[in-house]
Amino acid sequence: MSTTLGSRIAALGICVGLLSGLFVLAGVGYPAPPDSGPNLADPDVSPDEFAGEHVETGGEVIGTDPVTIEIEDGTRIQRLPVENAPDVHVGQEVIVDGTLTTDGTLVVNRDRAVVREPWETTYMYAISVLGALYVAVRILDGWRFDPKAIAFSPRDTPLHTRYLSEEDTDG
Questions:
Q1: Can you tell me the distance from the alpha carbon of 91 to that of 73, in angstroms, rounded to the nearest whole number?
Q2: CA distance 58 to 68
Q3: How far apart are CA 77 and CA 146, in angstroms?
Q4: How far apart are CA 39 and CA 100, in angstroms?
């Protein structure tokens, strides 16, 4: 019994090691994205320093005529007018990149802009959590864990059918 238990623990360790190695390999296997220049949300970056350069930033839309975004860096708030912006509404989040002019306006490529409603991120995480809970419940319903053997095995009777009467299971 201890030999079987030891081999299962060793196999589990090898699988975890291989999975970790695949994560590392996936992380280093892709080339770094091209440098898009300074991010104006960084606290040590001032828009005045980068006039004429390509920059990337994101923030909340606070005005639409002209489009103005508010960039927060944790210590200060910057307001940046955006030229050639996509169709946006006040309160939306936008990520843009473009060329910063000498008057402080960001001329963006509207096709590369990302516009999000404030609720979209919350929705994305909520759906992910619900999906994970659904999968966990399905696994717990159909499988059981035997700690002595360190193994999962299918249940003879799934948990959701144990408490149904004979009439409910027939049709």
A1: 18
A2: 11
A3: 56
A4: 12
Distance (Å, whole) CA 135 – CA 26: 25
Whole-prediction pTM value?
0.57
Low-confidence ranges of the chain (pLDDT < 70): 1-2, 29-37, 39, 41-43, 165-171
Helix (H, G, I), strand (E, B) or coil at 108: strand
| φ and ψ at residue 161, rounded to 5 degrees | -100, -5
Give pLDDT tens digits for 82-92.
999 889 999 99
Q: Given this model, what pLDDT does residue 32 score?
A: 61
Please tell me whether residue 62 adopts helix, strand or coil conformation.
strand
Phi and psi for 25 in degrees, rounded to 5? Answer: -60, -40
Phi/psi of residue 46, each to 5°?
-115, 135
d(CA 62, CA 55): 20
The β-bridge partners of 23 are none
